[in-house]
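To the team - zinc ion complex, inputs and output below.
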Amino acid sequence: MSSTIQTVGSPAGALGDVRAWVTERHGGVSPAPYDSLNVGTHTDDDVANVEENERRVRTSLGLGRLAKVRLVHGARAVTTREEGHHGEADALLTDDSSLALGITVADCYPVAFAAPGWKGLAHCGWRSVAAGLVEVMVKSLANSGVPAPEVSAWIGPGIGPCCFEVGEEVAQQFAPQHIRTTDGPRPHLDLAAEIFGRLQQAGVDENRITRSELCTACNTDRLFSHRKEAPTGRMGAYVL
Ligand SMILES: [Zn+2]
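Output:
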């Protein structure tokens, strides 16, 4: 198999000079069920495989200095100009144009942010969204001098309403219009629509929000889906 790395990327110009990518699952060295481009450290995959996969991704995408966090499904965002690990959080922000930001995903939505002089990346699973991570990102940028109308955002691939079955106690935490009850006995959450709505309510112009529309669980030939496949690998999401 070719070792070329495929990505799902933000549309050209959607984030100004900032680019965002999510790596697809092929072109790595991990065996099943992590086959093959698994960049998730917190899996039972061999660490040496994950390191080789990450090396391939960083080379392919030209990620030099890279900042990361240990994801905990909360609403904390770290602002930094330093590469390396930054502890427990679910988002990163920087005003250093040469610093890349990275998280891992497999159903949770990666949401990339761009604004004059700034970029950000948030790991938006339902817990983080319910805890207010989308609003934290917009507020953090505002506190740094970037008003919401100047912010652009890209919602990457994640688990779609077609496949995201949730319990009533989870469904209750979201806007009723983002809950579908037509797909089966249990409610289905349209988390991307919820994220879109929260971005708008926080003041981001809807014309500055783009979406991938790809469902991870419907596309396991290209993407990893924790819900559909666990145990499985993790995709890398990056902004630069
Ligand atoms: Zn689906």
